[in-house]
Amino acid sequence: MSRNWKEYNEELVKRGEFYLSPSFLDSWDDELDRMNESKVGRPYEYPDSFVQFAALWYEFFHLPYRQLEGALRKLGELLPKLKASDYSRLCRRFKDIKIEIPEPSDKVIIAVDSTGIKVTNRGEWMRKTHRGERRGWIKVHVAVDVKNKELLSIEVTDEKTGDSEVFEPLVENLNLKDCLGDGAYDDEEVFKLLEEKGVGPPGIKIRKNAKRGLSPRGHAAKEFRELGYEEWKKKHEYGKRWAAEGFFSAVKRCFGETVRAASPEGMIREVKRKFALYNLVTRI
């Protein structure tokens, strides 16, 4: 089916509008009232929606914290209702920011995959994860809805962690119709978990020498051999697996391929924030 380019172009234009949308001002007071209703200690002065807006600017425009404060202060001159925060407060709030990832109500077909993100501050990451080895990557694992290309789940690890090792936390809260993945997920435990979730055999590419048998992976091997690759690919619409790779590519184009945080914990938070923010923007 051909793409409606007029509709697609308009979607991209609206995403651009989101970077300057002051809609959070309309609910500023009400949101603060809700946030402070049962809070102990110093009350919040800035609603989460404003912090989310500031985080989007921080990531998209690659602004240092002090420059971010200056940009928001200048924006406040144009929007009198906007109360600009100082950079240190924003830094603290970014650490706790929670951006909701949607939970689909119906069963979904997901694509699972992983990618590497470069570490700018390599030293501490290497010391804590590789004991001096010359590496500088962290690994992002995602599950993406192949229908609407939305992020449904994300896990962040060091680059030594195999894709199948984090498959369970990646899909444990998802209601699945099928799961599409490459050979990195050809693992007996993965097939067993998917069978328990009512998926079987899934659209995971299996090794050519896989033996047929009574196990979930054995059933998948039998289906793969009986259908042949081309028919198996059509049955599972395996081409839609590229939804995950497309999501990775879009996030990297939007926010870059590196993280700026200094600590391993900060790097993980930053990566999750970037992916969740992109998910938010594409839903507009």
Could you characterize what this model shows?
With 284 residues, the protein is α/β, with parallel strands linked by helices. The protein has 2 domains: 5-96, no CATH class; 108-282, Nucleotidyltransferase, domain 5, CATH 3.30.420. 48% of the residues lie in helices and 14% in strands. It is built from 11 helices and 6 strands. The chain has helices spanning 5-18, 28-36, 48-60, 65-78, 87-96, 122-129, 167-171, 188-196, 216-236, 242-255, 264-282, and strands at 108-119, 137-145, 151-158, 176-181, 203-204, 258-259. Strands 1, 2, 3, 4, 5 and 6 form a 6-stranded mixed beta sheet that branches. The longest helix has 21 residues, at 216-236. It is elongated. The two termini are 23 Å apart. The mean pLDDT is 88.
Structure described in brief:
It is built from eleven helices and six strands.
The portion of residues forming beta strands comes to: 5-15%
CATH architecture name of the largest domain: 2-Layer Sandwich
pLDDT under 50 segments (min length 5)? Answer: none
At the fold tier of CATH, the topology name of the largest domain is Nucleotidyltransferase, domain 5
Helix/strand order, N-terminal first = HHHHHEHEEHEHEHHEH
Number of domains: 2
Terminal CA distance: 23 Å
The strand count comes to 6
